[in-house]
Amino acid sequence: MSDLQISLLAIGVVVIAGVYLFNLMVERGYRRRAEASFKSAHSDVLLEVPAAGRVAPERVEPRIEPYLEMQPAPVADPVEEWPEVGMDVEPEVELEPEVPQPLQERPKAATHDIAAESPGPDAAVEYVARIHASDPIAAQDVAPAVQRSHEIGKPVRWFGLNEHSGAWEAAAPDTGSTYIELAVGLQLANRAGAISAEQLSGFCAMVDDFAAERHAVAECPERQPALESALELDGFCVDVDVLIGLNVVAQKGVAFPATKIRALAEAAGMKLTPEGVFHYCNDHGDSLFSLCNHESAPFLQDQIKQLSTHGVTLVFDVPRVADGLRVFDQMAALARKMAGALGGALVDDNIRPLSDAGIGRIRQQLAGIYARMEDRGIGGGSERALRLFS
Fold first, then answer.
1. Residue 268, number of CB atoms within 10 A of its CB
2. How far apart are CA 42 and CA 285, in angstroms?
3. Is 327 within 8 Å of 288 (Cβ atoms)?
4. Cα–Cα distance for residue pair 25/20, rounded to 1 Å
5. Residues 266 and 158: beta-carbon distance below 8 Å
6. Which of 81, 125, 84, 111 is nearest to 353 (CA)?
7. Is 348 helix (H, G, I), strand (E, B) or coil?
8. Cα(387)–Cα(390) distance, rounded to whole angstroms?
9. 3-state class of 60 per DSSP?
10. From the first residue on, what is the mean pLDDT of each consecutive set of 10 residues in the chain (390 residues)?
11. Residues of the chain with CATH 3.30.1400.10
């Protein structure tokens, strides 16, 4: 091999070695940059073993408070043991419960202020979700969602922002309206208790599904503050949800003829319903107070002539009655009149005689309850009260 060939061979080896080293350096540089780019300080949540002592947050479920049930007072047995009218035993008066803290304010949407308009959802007692439409939504398209709302387990109301009038209205299929925005209110509490986390989740899922089907955007506020507000509102409602019962009972075992009871009730403006209960109603047909048999048999139309009883109960559903003090005075006056006409005794639910002073104390308690309701913005017999106490 000549010197020229040896030189060329050596040069070739050097070139090849140089190319190899250059490629190696470039590869290492790329590897370092790639590792720096994809490196993450976060652990893999699927593979990570929880550290000792770490506890997952406990899910808070709202409580459900029982409401007072409308039940007639127990009839003492035997009748001969009931006290005479002349006894002056005063009923016990319970201390007024502590006033709860105000309802927590939930986040408000940045669009139209529905609370200032009517009709519309009631943000004080409802969890309000919104649906922002890309294309106007016809009123009849809301009907299936309204039907589905009955599955939630709490009252739900749908309202639409009319595309043409620019006003909010109840979303009803027969209006023929089209809406550029919808507002859906889930009532936080009623006599069945506060909303549960499951009910609230189902409501939000329903709203999300409706919006997705129409390429709209659903907006549901935070849920936990709503659940807390529902519990607080429910607690307030339990405190003021009171039934007042005045009883007129027979003395010495002498029963009252049901026909005479009917005559006294109808003379006072009461009407007998098919369920066997007399009701005193306002001009709108709303019951203000009722009269039922103190015993188990109702005052049925076809049986009343053969019926007699040892007592009747007049019942007053406090939060559902407007101008409640005046209505209570009417009921108390009727109770006194019936006691006199039937020769009976006016007693409380423990069959203890009620004097004028005792009725006055009940009235005083009643005034305190109505004052608390007014301070809360839930006037007795108002639309808001009728929805909460249903």
1. 16
2. 66
3. yes
4. 9
5. no
6. 84
7. coil
8. 6
9. coil
10. 66 62 51 41 35 32 31 37 37 36 34 50 96 94 93 96 93 89 97 98 97 95 98 98 96 93 97 97 94 96 96 97 97 97 92 93 96 97 96
11. 79-97+241-388
What sections of 60-176 are H helices per DSSP?
Answer: 139-149
- Given the candidates 1.10.8, 3.30.870, 1.10.3470, 3.30.70, the CATH classification of the domain at 114-221 is 3.30.70
> What pTM, to 2 d.p., does this model score?
0.68
- Classified by CATH at the fold level, domain 79-97+241-388 comes out as Cell Division Protein Zipa; Chain: A, (3.30.1400)
Nearest to 314 by CA among 341, 286, 333: 333
- Tell me which residue of 22, 68, 84, 5 sits closest to 344, measured CA to CA: 84
Q: Nearest to residue 177, comparing CAs of 168, 185, 186, 190?
A: 168
Termini Cα distance of the chain: 112
Element (H, E) at 315: strand 311-317
Tokens of 87: 């006894």
**What pLDDT is stored for residue 103 in this prediction?**
32
Residue 253 identity (one-letter amino acid): G
